[in-house]
Amino acid sequence: MEIIYLLIPIAIILVSVAIWAFFWSVKQGQFDDLESPAHRILFEDDDDLIPDDARPDKDNRKDP
């Protein structure tokens, strides 16, 4: 029974820290944009690694 006197204050402290961390992250803007980080991985940023002779020719494309 004496352990309950220790566990209740520890639980209150942990809940207080979790609530503080949540409000801090909302204030810092962590939840403002949830979709663009998931789409960012799809963008190609390796255009400089493609050799010039392997690049598609934008001027000579034929429309289907």
UniProtKB/TrEMBL annotation:
Protein's UniProt keywords contain Membrane: yes
Matches recorded under InterPro entries: Cyt_oxidase_maturation_cbb3
Top-level division of the source organism's lineage: Bacteria
Segments crossing the lipid bilayer: 6-26
Keywords noted in UniProt: Membrane, Transmembrane, Transmembrane helix
NCBIfam families (alphabetical): ccoS (TIGR00847)
Protein name: Cbb3-type cytochrome oxidase assembly protein CcoS
